[in-house]
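CHAIN AND CONFORMATION:

***
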Amino acid sequence: MRKILQISMIFSLFLSLSPISNAQALEIVSSEETVSGSPSAQSFKAHVVVKNISDADLIVWASARKVELTEGHKYLFCDLNYCYQSTDGDELLADESFVLGSGEQTGAEVVYIGLEPNGISGRSIITMKFAIEGDPFDFIEFTATFDVLTSVANNPESAFSVSEAMPNPAADMITIKYNIPDINIRSRLSIYDIYGIVIKEIELDQSGRSISVDISNLVPGTYFYRLNSGSEIIGSKFVVSR
């Protein structure tokens, strides 16, 4: 009888630890799973928006690992607190957690996986993980594929690219240079605040090479911009200061 009771207790403990019994508290609202461009680009970003779908505030730990990394490429990830640069290890862990309130989600331009191609062509695949503190079985993952194209490197005129905003910081006006190889694809420049809210959206002239944007009505702070052309997305950030 004692053995049966012990077996029953062990089986009950196993069930309490099984990941099947733990409901997912996070979901991915949107993500950029494929990013492509030229080896001459300084960096690429694959953004992800994560939402707390539980009824409680959550403490979240972020990490990233390389699935496939072209030699010479460097990857990083940014959460709500900091950005973390890879070294020679397979996994990159955040030093601090962040809190997502019930029903809250991260901003559209805040959390992302970044890749620095360092002039090297090739494909790199990185996975980012979001885990709930105290529950190792409750997590969600996002995988981004970065295609750094050799053909673009051989012909700069065919490179899909966007420059850093100039000047930066700026008070009233910024200028952004860009190149869109396929003039038949609708392209636009979107500007977001730190909460992921679209502030401006501008249709771009594919035959053009630069655009000046009036930012005189923006309050001082950090903003993000993104050039969207078909399936290709690339962008950066600028600061409004007066």
User: Anything to note?
Assistant: Residues 1-23, 151-156 have pLDDT under 50 and may be disordered. Helices lie at 2-17, 150-154.
